[in-house]
Structure formats: C-alpha cells, structure tokens
Amino acid sequence: MTGGGGARSPAQAARGRRQKAASLPLDVLVDIAAHTDPATFVRCAATCVDMRCRVKEYISLRHPLRLRQGDRFVLPLLRGHLMYRSHDWSEPKEQLFLMDTSAPDATKLRTATGGGFPLSSRDGLVLARVGAAAKELRVCDPATGRSMTLPPEPAFPRTWGANYVLLVSDDDKGGTTSVGRHFQVVKAYLNMSEYGGYLHLQFQTFSSEHGAWGLYTETWLPYVQCGRLKRSLDKALVTGGAVHWLFMTDTGFYVLKLRVGAAKVMVTKLPKGFPHHLWEHQKLLAASSVGGDVLVLVADDDRMSVWAQSKHTAKWKQRPHVVINMTETILRFLDKEGGGCIPPTKPVGFSLVSFAEKSGTVLIKACNGFFWLDLRTMEIVRWFWDHGVPYTTHNIPYEISLTAWVPTFSSTL
C-alpha cells in the first residue's frame, strides 16, 4: 500500500516486540547471577566483555556471592600442583615450582613466588615453611606474589613434629591482610597418653584476623584405646566445616574429625573389611562433593577402591563403594591424548598423591608422570609428563577460589 501503511510481516512484528521489551541493566543481571549457582554465574560472565567487567567490578567491591548448589565440584578451579625440589649433589638449592595444568595444551612450569616447603594449600593461598633452617611459617599467594609471615609458632609439649592445615575464609571480606583474605592455620599433633594407652589431640590455631596464635588445647579421643600409634595424622581433608585426618593404631584405621571453632573431636573406625596393611595399600582422604561426605581412597596394585560411610548410621560400609581399574583408565586416556608416556607393560603401578577439594580431582603419579582423576566421572582429565622436570619430593594441589577465577577466565574455559 502506498505510504507504507501495509500490514507488517511476522518477522517485523517479532522484531518490534523485542525492541519494546524492557531490558534489565547489567548491574541487575550480575546481582541476579550472584544468587544462582557457580556454573550459571560463570556462564553469565562469559556472555560478553561488558558483563565480564561488571562481574569483576561486583567482586572487587566485595559484594557477597550467595551462590546455590555450592557443593558441586568446579574443575576449572584446579590450577595445577605445587612441586617441591629438595637440594641434591648437582645443585644444592631448594625450590618450589608451580605446574600449571589449567590448559592441557599450555602446560607451564615456573618457580612459585614465596618458595619454601609447602605444608598446605587452599583457595589460592599456600602455607610454607621458609627462612633459615625453615623455622618460619609463611602464607603466600603465588598469583599476586604477596605473602604474610606468621609470628613464632608455639612449641607443643613432648612432640617432635606436627601437622599443619590452612583454612581460608569464605566470606570474601578480604583486604585486611597482606594476602587479601583472612585465614587460619591449625597446628595439630596426635599424642599417646603416658598412662593407659589413650590418644590425645593437641592443637593450636593462628588467626590472621587477630594476628596471634590462640590457646593451646588438648582433648582426649573417645573410643580409641590402643597399645601403639602406628601412623600419625596423615594429609588433612577439609569438608563439611571440619578438618579430617586418617591415622592408624595397632587396633586399626580411624578417621578423626575436628571442628576447630568448637574444639570438638569425633572418631570413627574403618570396618573389618577395610585393608589394614600399613604399607602395602596406600590410602588418601577425599570428599564426595564440596563440603560433602568423607571418602577413603585405597590403592591396591592397579586398582583404586573408594570407601564411604552410610548416610543413615554414619558407620563405614563393609565393602568399597566403587572399584576402578587404573590401568584401563590411564591407558584409555593416553590412547586418546597420545604422547610418549604409554607404559610398555601392564599393570600400571600408581600412587595416590593428594586430593583437590574444590575441583574434586585426585593427583596420581604413574608411568613417571602425573595424572588428575575426576572423582565424578572416574576418568583422567589432565596429565603432565616431561623428562625436563627436576626431581621433586613433595607435591600438593593448587586451586584458586571462584571469585579469583571468574574475572580472569578465558573463552577456552
């Protein structure tokens, strides 16, 4: 019709409706996304550069992230692992390396800022022993290079060693410490009583908020009476708001649970069917989800078994929950990825190195290389193998926090 007064096409009508529809400001969209789940929040930040900038600004202003479904593992939070090299005859120097495996095609090995012997790592921060004769404790952030040296640690009575755990605040109220966020360091030791064969847990906590070590606490472990402690506190697992350790006496294996703030302990004994050999079967604590139930991983030849507790009784089940063949798992991954790490014979011997609590992955050493096993899928997701890597004596996982990852993630993630 002359003058353009004719009826519009369906496409024109739809375009007009979209133009009339009110669009929400980016600030409002970011605030909505901050109340969703981690995956949705990250997808929101990935939509465009403007949204990414608003997310970064939102986090920098220390707005709280009220994310739901926070118990889901987020694999990209795994940055890699820290590798400590002790001095040897060829080069008498101790170094700490960061093996960055965040991108399989861009694996990097670099010296970690702060150095020292790594004791614990959590949410992007690392607790290490540094200084002359390694007498100082220091918390550092390898990403920023910032660090904080702790005041002299207290000496426990009648002990020669202790277990250290780094706990990082989740409230994002950082900025008041040199490393950005508040943290706690738990120093713990399992001690045999002089009378009656009972065990006592000694622990003391440093708080960055108060800048000092707290009171010394010694508490008796209930339901544990033994003649000899055969294996003291092993690598710590932090889940469900508590610290967990695996230890062994002449009566069996136990899992110790400590709620630091309340100074309460709980002990559960592994069942009769659990492999109680001290050296033949390597064991490692893991979690079913972020903040979820405790699992015990056991390495037996080329198999890994997963032991779980009953949700109704909290008692350990008599049989493993899952058993996987690591030879088939590793060979399947190497066959897909290629490379020169394929072993000439079977079965593949492996060792359990450590568990990353936010990504839900297990660091495994096999075939002269390192592999990351995803506990959700029971498949290898990353690996590293290089003849040029110096000999290392200690390896721990290195993960970053969600708030540190979101503003810096790339499109490849």
UniProtKB/TrEMBL annotation:
Protein name: Predicted protein
Organism of provenance: Hordeum vulgare subsp. vulgare (Domesticated barley)
Organismal lineage: Eukaryota, Viridiplantae, Streptophyta, Embryophyta, Tracheophyta
Gene name for this UniProt entry: LOC123406981
Domain DUF7595: 118-365
PANTHER family per the UniProt record, alphabetical: F-BOX DOMAIN-CONTAINING PROTEIN (PTHR35828:SF51), OS08G0203800 PROTEIN-RELATED (PTHR35828)
